[in-house]
Amino acid sequence: MRPNAFVQLCFLPLIIFTLAFLALPLVRLFVSSVSGEDGWSIYWKVVTTPRYLDALLQTVFVSLAVTIAALVISTTVGLFLARNEFRGRGMILSVLTLPLAFPGVVIGFLIILLGGRQGLFNQITSGHVVFAYTMFGLFLGYLYFSIPRVLLTVMAATEKLDPALEEAARSLGAGSFHVIKDVIMPGLAPSLVAAGAIAFATAMGAFGTAFTLATNIDVLPMVIYTEFTLSANIAMAAALSVVLGLVTWLLLVIARSFSGTTAAAGG
Amino acid sequence: MRPNAFVQLCFLPLIIFTLAFLALPLVRLFVSSVSGEDGWSIYWKVVTTPRYLDALLQTVFVSLAVTIAALVISTTVGLFLARNEFRGRGMILSVLTLPLAFPGVVIGFLIILLGGRQGLFNQITSGHVVFAYTMFGLFLGYLYFSIPRVLLTVMAATEKLDPALEEAARSLGAGSFHVIKDVIMPGLAPSLVAAGAIAFATAMGAFGTAFTLATNIDVLPMVIYTEFTLSANIAMAAALSVVLGLVTWLLLVIARSFSGTTAAAGG
Amino acid sequence: MTLTLKSVSKTYPDGTVALQPTELHVEPGEIVSLLGPSGCGKTTLLRIIAGLETPNAGSEVRFGDDDVTNMPVEHRKVGMVFQSYALFPNMSVKGNIAYGLKMQKLGRDAIEERVTEVIRLCQLEPYVDRRITALSGGQRQRVALARAFAPRPRILLLDEPLSALDAALRVTLREELAGLLRRFNITALFVTHDQDEAMAIADKVAVMSHGKVVQTGTPEELYRNPKTSFVAGFVGHAMQLEGQVRGSVLEMSGGRLELPRAGDDCDVYVRAEDVALDEAGPLKATVESSTFLGTHYRVGLSGLGARTIFANHAGQKSPALGSQVRVAMHPSALMLLPREDDRS
Amino acid sequence: MTLTLKSVSKTYPDGTVALQPTELHVEPGEIVSLLGPSGCGKTTLLRIIAGLETPNAGSEVRFGDDDVTNMPVEHRKVGMVFQSYALFPNMSVKGNIAYGLKMQKLGRDAIEERVTEVIRLCQLEPYVDRRITALSGGQRQRVALARAFAPRPRILLLDEPLSALDAALRVTLREELAGLLRRFNITALFVTHDQDEAMAIADKVAVMSHGKVVQTGTPEELYRNPKTSFVAGFVGHAMQLEGQVRGSVLEMSGGRLELPRAGDDCDVYVRAEDVALDEAGPLKATVESSTFLGTHYRVGLSGLGARTIFANHAGQKSPALGSQVRVAMHPSALMLLPREDDRS
């Protein structure tokens, strides 16, 4: 009946192929995790072994910290840039989005150049400030990574806010504080949730930065890498991957239900 | 005169701080690259040393291939999913976007589980198909990574297409092929350019996947890591980072000028 | 080309009845309007004729002798003008107009010739190479019309062609559209919810309500001789007079009104232009509001029933607010219509 | 509260003059409309009064005795109704209406009391706890009005309050709005491009053109005694009669028309309702088009000049297309207006 039924028939094999391509590896991953010598209890082991649990908690913690910091900084700066026209605005925007072009490894490298043993800060303070190899260094690296992404989302959302809403609030006697609290923040909320979810997911999985800073930072992707490559403990690596994936996926799903379908579209 | 001048004054320091935070490391990176023993000629060395040039070209090549493949697959699947309502559609969408939750390391790991020496394909074909450690494995890994992101962008853009445009073309006698060529593709073009730019930038910088597959794949982020950590050749690592950043940034800028300001907002 | 619909109906998968079995006949060259409030099924009917919507089984759509019920839209040779115009933003004005001709695989010269002809007819010469985004609303409308008309369609279908324009433009473009359609000399069917628009453009109007065509006729027929209270209310804004009909007299709270005939099972309707402020009138009312509208005052009268009755008063001065006036309505202006439930 | 504007003007940074020096005086309780085509500066003027736009130096805006020229909008105590209504989507109907009172830091009971009062006045009781997105266009308009009115503003400013509604609703809501504004008993100023809207709601209309108020008066004054051709054309659609004025006679291509007085430097205007088809009329014309509009036919006449002249013909039948008719216009209906360039 429908005239493009033929075209749809052509699409079908592609869909099946794509699904298989995307789903098969995940099934395989899950099977691998429970086919080690521990069987299903490997997931119990993840939760009870301090090394794994600590890594998981640390990863979630630093990711949350980065998400919150990136949201606060980017929202403030984004609002300012979206609402003010001045000379050099275009240049500032370009600089702010430059980090988008650099991968995680380079970002880790940048952090070492600044906060490493031969880094800028250490030179200035003559040997007192080394933060590159700590959790704080990782935090800064991830933050560096996240700010431009969140910033661009906030600015796009700000441009879509109806300026009449703000004017209405002001005509009713609202000062700047109330305009931000009652009009701008509720208007930006969906975009902030979406951007935050992306920032969180990115931080959860960031490997390049962590690996470059290396040494003794135990974040989950690092542990997975170690288990797999160095210890050849495939089952545990798979189990940890499944846990990491589940946590991130849950958060993305929650964010999407808060902010409509656009949440992961920014990903 | 303007009532929120005070608030703007408060923003200013934050802007300056943010700019410094984002710009300072980059300046430092550039300074590092030219303050080695080669000075400025290090950039000449990048272009003339086969190892570096090959890595750069290989990285650009595999990124382009991934971008094109992801665009073709995601556009076809995305159009089909956006235009057809059927049972299980929600589930298919969830599966298609699951890879968003997994970081590069895990993706690399997945590729090994499938195409490695002990991988699924090798078991099925009894020892004939091992592709995990080749450029093709890397390509598959990146593709796995890119499809969901491009797919979501395409679907969001498809929903925004005016269905009346399609109906208009059909009422003028256009068949399915012409509808896609004359109406749908031009309508999706800005989103496709934006999504493609993001896919390209991500592939250019992906490290986790490459590192997990490891061994003899020379992509740029790997070379940077090697130069920095193993050879302690900081100047060359910095120079390669600058080149990588510039290439990616140029592409993002070009894409943005094609598709309006939304290009990098998806980033 | 004649257009014939036989028991065309449409039920959506969720059970909503968008269109009850409908008959319609349009003569060659006739311009017919489907008029009705939003949600009455008029757009569904138009889309079924275009082939953009599939009617229920048993429906029949004929273009002349050709049964097109199961023919896909791209083979029906209809010209469609969409509410949003749906012009291709990636093509110039000329590209849009030539599109249908290209799809017919005509030769270059033939396309060029026809495009030039249509552009001249629609007075689009100054805009030929413009981008669609550089056109005003009225210009877009003309391009949409030219695009639909260029491939010589069998029938032209227009979906609320003026509703995307702002009020000030609408009246001017209404007359332009009416002129163009007549110059095209083509069978045309257009949907609108605006009775002025339907009357100004169409030869014949089909009034729809709740998925059904309730009356078809020339604008004059519908206005002067509505068959239902819905048509009376929708075409010309007739107001119901509340009261008790006794023989050929209506007893209202403001007095007794003579009817043109006995009408015991009828409701009585009148239009504002037939309500006269007349010192010798049989009814008493109080002036509640008064609005100057240029040619006349629109005077709101209370006391003639629960609802306000409006009178178009053409005098130089409006009666004072709150004053008592006497009101007359000529029996010939009163419409006696069968009592019915509006929703049926 | 009186509103007084003294030489208020506005030039944008890019040099565009949005508003030439303008005087305006509004009496307490008066409802005044700013009427004009889009781009005439009426919205700019309204926004300057609200405090949302800064006028040029030398401008003066007074609310009663209070010079508010440099006062920011949040301290001006104005009630503003926006074209898009701009209701807060994250608050309920009640939350929206209470917002202004909360900003005044009133006590809970005082807020509750005032909100209840305003909700009753605007007949919003059934919607109190609804989300904004669950309201129809007409309900949104009433909420926007209630929200602006609740904090007892000194003046109510409305920016095209009806333009977001579709045509069918607009006429009904026009009367509802007029009623509410009068019940509020507040000084109000509203912007519109629709002359019917301005006439139906306002006590006084200020017609604007090209950044200037060109005439102020009651609807009747503007309609019957326009001072410029722009006002005559915009209020009541007067048409210019082309021809040569010789003493008190206009020599047209269709014949000679008697004028009410000698007017050698004048253009002559007439409205469609004053053009009569009359066998004894002095002018000859050809019927070009005819549209039935219920109360009358709108007959297009050619031969009276280069442009088509329309006549509202109230008869039961329209003259045949192409037929020759004779046309009369009563001298008292002709408007002699100083010849001028419309753009000035």
From TrEMBL, chains A, B:
It is a multi-pass membrane protein. The keyword Transmembrane helix applies. The chain crosses the membrane at residues 60-81, 93-114, 126-145, 192-214, 234-255. Residues 56-255 form the ABC transmembrane type-1 domain. InterPro entries: MetI-like, MetI-like_sf. GO terms for biological process: transmembrane transport. CDD domains: TM_PBP2 (cd06261). SUPFAM superfamilies: MetI-like. GO terms for cellular component: plasma membrane. The keyword Aminoacyl-tRNA synthetase does not apply. Keywords: Cell membrane, Membrane, Transmembrane, Transmembrane helix, Transport. It is found in: Cell membrane. Belongs to the binding-protein-dependent transport system permease family. CysTW subfamily. PANTHER family: INNER MEMBRANE ABC TRANSPORTER PERMEASE PROTEIN YDCU-RELATED, INNER MEMBRANE ABC TRANSPORTER PERMEASE PROTEIN YDCU-RELATED-RELATED. This is ABC transporter permease. It comes from Hoeflea olei.
From TrEMBL, chains C, D:
Keywords: ATP-binding, Cell membrane, Membrane, Nucleotide-binding, Translocase, Transport. PANTHER family: MALTODEXTRIN IMPORT ATP-BINDING PROTEIN MSMX, TREHALOSE IMPORT ATP-BINDING PROTEIN SUGC. Belongs to the ABC transporter superfamily. It is found in: Cell inner membrane. InterPro entries: AAA+_ATPase (IPR003593), ABC_transporter-like_ATP-bd (IPR003439), ABC_transporter-like_CS (IPR017871), ABC_transpr_MalK/UgpC-like (IPR047641), Mo/tungstate-bd_C_term_dom (IPR008995), P-loop_NTPase (IPR027417), Transp-assoc_OB_typ2 (IPR013611). It comes from Hoeflea olei. This is Fe3+/spermidine/putrescine ABC transporter ATP-binding protein. Pfam families: ABC_tran, TOBE_2. The keyword Membrane applies. GO terms for cellular component: ATP-binding cassette (ABC) transporter complex, substrate-binding subunit-containing. GO terms for molecular function: ABC-type transporter activity; ATP binding; ATP hydrolysis activity. Residues 3-235 form the ABC transporter domain. It is a peripheral membrane protein. Its main location: membrane.
